[in-house]
Amino acid sequence: MDRAGAAAAVCLVASLTALLMTGCGATSAGRVSPGQTASHIPASQTARTTGKPTAHSPAPPLARSVPVRLRIAAIGVDTPVMGLGLAADGTVAVPPIEAHSPAGWYDGSPTPGQTGPSVILGHVTVGSYGDGVFLRLSHLKAGDRIDVGLKDGATATFTVDSVETIPKSRFPTAKVYGNVNHPALRLITCGGNRVSGSGYQDNVVVYASLTSGTTS
Predict the structure, then answer these.
(1) Which domain holds residue 69?
(2) What's this model's pTM, rounded to 2 decimal places?
(3) Is 36 helix (H, G, I), strand (E, B) or coil?
(4) CATH at 20
């Protein structure tokens, strides 16, 4: 699978080693056909709620600029954001398994504030290092604010539309990664029950929409 073909399959597939160390591999986070990027998933295949924000008027799109910081006051997140590409096996890389591991933005998705679903992921736990940056991601609720600092000095402010916990076996690929007509953000981590030897059974997904953009 080439880079373009993998873009819509932002399924956060960790290696077996990462899965065992963190219990947070997202090995069933949804795939699409090779060559079908997120922006080319037909509207008929996307969830109805992805066409527009569910509760908020979207702000105009921002210029492309990579994210460098993520702040979510409601759950005490204030973390750098690293870029994530593809691993050697064609799967999406994950943040490192280490103390204070940051959130990671998948560089095959739009930058936060561009039209489309920008994808940021983080660990819920990091093995022997303890809690991950997205430990409390499932505690977010509609209306909560998410601020993403961009490299060009702008801040993209998103408002949470919804949060759901989904079995990895039924990950809603089109709803998460499908084409949308507004600047959107998806935050993804693991959740649900944790089974020894196989990790967490679910994914937590936060859906948010851009509601303002400011420059410094």
Answers:
(1) 3-34+56-215
(2) 0.78
(3) coil
(4) 2.40.260.10
